Amino acid sequence: MNNMDPEVRRKVSDWLSYGDEDLRLARHALTLTSACPYRLIAYHAQQCAEKHLKAYLVFHGIDFPYTHNISRLLELCAERAGWAESLQDAEELTAFATAVRYPGMEESVTRTEALRSIEIASRVLEVVRTALSQEGLRVPEGEGR
């Protein structure tokens, strides 16, 4: 898409960049030697996946609701993307969007769950970036990779 609107290109790039930062932060938090905040790692992994899916939707001009629901975002992506079904396990991340951020709502998150959330977010990142590249967007190398 060489004739893509520069403003759309910038917005897609911003969504990807913010998602990359979330994944980078999640990975870095794993290096903490004490009191590792697994709930925040899972939250930032969820944010990475959410922002990459939203970047894809912006690229295609598909309106999306204000939501953290990965399942809903995948449904919207599926209108244009055959790959969306291969990411159904990313729905697991939705629980980390809000329940782990606020006192009284938090659920404990284990190291295993935090690692899995990073694994899933990394896969979403790769699939979305590959799809965007194949669809004609020059995708810069992500920091989260």
What does this protein look like?
This protein is 54% helix and 0% strand. The model has no long low-confidence stretch (mean pLDDT 90). It has a single domain (6-134), classed as Four Helix Bundle (Hemerythrin (Met), subunit A) (Up-down Bundle), CATH 1.20.120. The protein has helices spanning 6-29, 38-59, 70-78, 111-134. It has 145 residues and is an all-alpha fold.
Number of domains: 1
Give the CA-CA distance, first to last residue: 24 Å
Under CATH, the topology is which? Four Helix Bundle (Hemerythrin (Met), subunit A)
Can you identify the CATH superfamily?
A: Nucleotidyltransferases  domain 2
The amount of helix comes to 40-55%
Number of DSSP strands? 0
Mind telling me the C-alpha Rg? 15 Å
Comma- or semicolon-separated keywords:
single chain; 145 residues; mainly alpha; Four Helix Bundle (Hemerythrin (Met), subunit A); 4 helices; globular
List the helices and strands and how they pair.
Blueprint: H1 6-29, H2 38-59, H3 70-78, H4 111-134
Helix pairs in contact: 1-2, 1-4, 2-3, 2-4
Question: In summary, what is this structure?
Answer:
By secondary structure, the protein is mainly alpha-helical. Helix content is about 55%, strand content about 0%. It is built from four helices and no strands.
